[in-house]
Amino acid sequence: MKKWIKVLTTGILATVLLVSLSACGSSDSAKGSDKDTIVMYQIGDKPEGFDKLLAKANETIEKETGAKLDMRFISWGDYDKKMSVMVSSGENYDIAFANNYVINAQKGAYADLTELLPKYAKEAYDQLDPAYIKGNSINGKLYAMPVNGNVFAQQVLTFNKQYLDKYNLDVSNVNTYADLEPLLATIKKNEKSVMPLAAGQGFKVEAELEYPIENGMPFAVDLKGDTTKIVNQFDTTELRDNLRAMHGFYKKGYIAQDAATNTTEYPLDGATWFARQETQGPYDYGDMLLTQVAGQELVSRPITNPSKTNAQSQMANFVVSSNSKNKEKAVEVLGVLNSNPDVLNTLVYGEEGKSWEKTDNGHAKILDGYKANNHLSAWNTGNNKILYPTANVTDDMIKTRDDSIANATQSPLLGFNVKTDSIKTELSNIANVMNQYIDGLNTGTLDPDKAIPEMNKKLEKAGYEKVRKELQKQYDAFLKENK
Across-strand partners of 409? Predict the structure, then answer.
């Protein structure tokens, strides 16, 4: 599950766009850690009543490690900048939700955990899918403890079922963006206050593509073509067709006319939208989690195939600062968070007995006291494997989840992490060009048949071919090494 608004910029693009930062620490940061307290930075706003949950979790953490966890929160909008300042200044902390994982690991900002994780967090480490290890390894070393969860994912188009029922709409044949046309037309005609397709700034049109950098930059591997070549995804047939469909939707008013600059969200639990784009993985149990969070029935159709990718393996990484004086102890704490069910279920579900209770068959029954904002999210807290499934998750659903993880295909790019030292200037120039076009193309505001050729000319002047050749050179070496 995801929001379509891009609230946090990640990957190489963020790094090459960062302005030189001063050597001062984050203004919100307190004194660094000591041997008895492990300081951990988490992304997002602090949940209501969180201190009580952390105190309960610390009873176990302190018993098992001899240290307490001090979890500090930085909002989504501020996290990228503040963590960049902290990395630049060498501020003392122990654990953090990874920011620009590959680049900062290459710069030496994160501790090498290759030997520490199997030694001090063995139980949690042993439960990781091999794709997590491969996707997070940089020059043969591991710098993160990934959250074990949706190791693969696929993009889906999600529909508000109340409107499907109201107009007897069939989504069984929706396999591409173009297939949305008659459904969106029905909603546009009959529901004046409903946005047929929820899209805005940060929305990304999907296709069977994988990205060596990120999907906002014009470099990709076409999974329907030659998977050994780095190409400009905007020149591939599938993405071009999807962008043309979006432009058609835009012209017919199925998308907000200010979508390219609009940051207004369409709440998942609201009735203001008909169709939207989401990401689903095995721990979403199909549409079950979406429906649960929305508080209304939602129905989805896949538009990409499931795949284990770098992006998914790096979705929620926790790193230990290379400046930490308590590296071993920090890894021990990460081990508890990712192996002790009592600790993790308390942090994710809330206070046991008030928000939830454990059933006889090892599930979590949600109680009336449960509130969505009084606990942490599962996807970026700890090992989803040890979370108690909610009462509506059946044994068959769990088996399907585990089988799908075991059988999911791996992206040819899994484990390929780009070194950018020789192309930083060009990447920055290319990013500036993409900022002029990316939202307009993805929201259908721009005609792709006119905008893409214009964009490509600017990309060539920005150094596109130099970067593509360097990426191809590194990718060739990677493929040769991983035959």
Answer: 307
* Burial (0-12, 13-18, 19+ Cβ within 10 Å), 373: exposed
Q: Which amino acid appears at position 33 of this protein? A: S
- Long-range Cβ contact pairs of 116-122 (< 8 A, separation 24 or more): 116/320, 116/327, 116/328, 116/331, 117/142, 117/145, 117/331, 119/331, 120/328, 120/331, 120/332, 120/335, 121/145, 121/331, 121/332, 121/334, 121/335, 121/338, 121/339, 122/335
266-271: long-range contacts, CB 8 A cutoff, minimum separation 24: 266/195, 266/198, 268/293, 268/294, 268/298, 269/293, 269/294, 269/295, 269/296, 271/160, 271/162, 271/194
CA distances from 153 to 92, 98, 226, 280, 401 (A): 35, 20, 22, 5, 12
Segment holding 365, helix H or strand E: strand 364-366
Q: Which tens digit of pLDDT belongs to each residue from 160-211?
A: 999 999 999 999 999 999 999 999 999 999 999 999 999 999 899 999 999 9
Q: What whole-number distance in Å separates Cα of residue 365 and Cα of residue 355?
A: 9
d(CA 222, CA 233): 7
> Residue 59 has what DSSP assignment?
H
Angular region, 90: left φ>0, alpha ψ -120 to 50, beta rest: left
In contact, 60 and 343? CB cutoff 8 Å: yes
| Beta strands 307-308 and 137-138, pairing class | unpaired
Quote the CA–CA distance of 32 and 213 in Å, as a whole number: 33
Q: How far apart are CA 326 and CA 87, in angstroms?
A: 17
Between CA 199 and CA 402 the distance in angstroms is 32
The 10s digit of each residue's pLDDT in 426-479 is 999 999 999 999 999 999 999 999 999 999 999 999 999 999 999 999 999 999
Q: Which two tokens stand for residue 92?
A: 């003392």
How many angstroms separate the Cα of 377 from the Cα of each of 34, 165, 330, 341, 395?
A: 27, 31, 21, 15, 23
Between CA 410 and CA 69 the distance in angstroms is 35
Give 9-27 pLDDT, tens digit per residue: 333 333 333 322 222 333 3
SS3 185: helix
